[in-house]
Amino acid sequence: MYSSDDSGSDFEGFAPEVVAAAEKKLLDLLELYPNDLSDVDLSDLDFESSDSEDENDDASTSNTNQNGDQWTDRLRRFTIEDFNGTPGPTTILPSDANEIDFFNLLFPSELLEKIAEETNRYAESEQEKKGQDPKWRATTAQEIRAYIGIQIVMGIIVAPNQDMYFSNDSLFKPSGINERITRDRLDKLNQYFHVSDNSQNPRRGQPGHDKLAHVRTIMDVILPKLKSAYNPHKEVSIDEAMIAFTGRLGFKQYVPLKPTKRGIKVWMRADPHNGFVNEFQVYTGKEGRTAEKGLGERVVRDLSRSIWGNYHHIYYDNYFTSIQLFNDLAENKTYACGTIRTNRKGLPPTIAKSKLKKQGDVI
Question: What are the Acidic residues biased-composition ranges (predicted)?
Answer without folding.
Answer: 41-58
